[in-house]
Amino acid sequence: MKEITAKELEQKLTAGEKLNIIDVREDVEVATGIIPGAKHISLGQIPDRLAELDKNEHYYMVCRSGGRSGNACQFLIQNGYNVTNMIGGMLDWEGEME
């Protein structure tokens, strides 16, 4: 599984790269802040919402600490998606939030 640190992802965002970020945390967690431009699909909803994801795109998966996003990555990889896990999750995120 491909991995990226929170700092590396923040640098890509700051550089203006077009990123597809999926936050798999629960609603109550996302209410405390989300990476600007990230799409919220809680982990349990991913199997039902695969149609929203394009297999030709690359996705960065985010959760609180990197565990659930790692599980999401494994599921998506098995289904033919190109994904990278943000290790350390939002606990390591120091960038802007909305």
Describe this structure in words.
The model has no long low-confidence stretch (mean pLDDT 98). With 98 residues, the protein is of the alpha/beta class. The chain is globular, with a radius of gyration of 12 Å. The chain has helices spanning 6-14, 27-30, 67-78; strands at 2-5, 20-23, 39-40, 58-62, 82-87. 26% of the residues lie in helices and 21% in strands. The longest helix has 12 residues, at 67-78. The chain has a single domain (2-91), classed as 3-Layer(aba) Sandwich (Oxidized Rhodanese, domain 1), CATH 3.40.250.10. It has a five-stranded parallel sheet with strand order 1-5-4-2-3.
Main attributes?
single chain, alpha/beta, five-stranded parallel β-sheet, globular, Oxidized Rhodanese, domain 1, 98 residues, 3 helices
Summarize the helices and strands and which ones pair or pack:
Layout: E1 2-5, H1 6-14, E2 20-23, H2 27-30, E3 39-40, E4 58-62, H3 67-78, E5 82-87
Parallel strand pairs: 1-5, 2-3, 2-4, 4-5
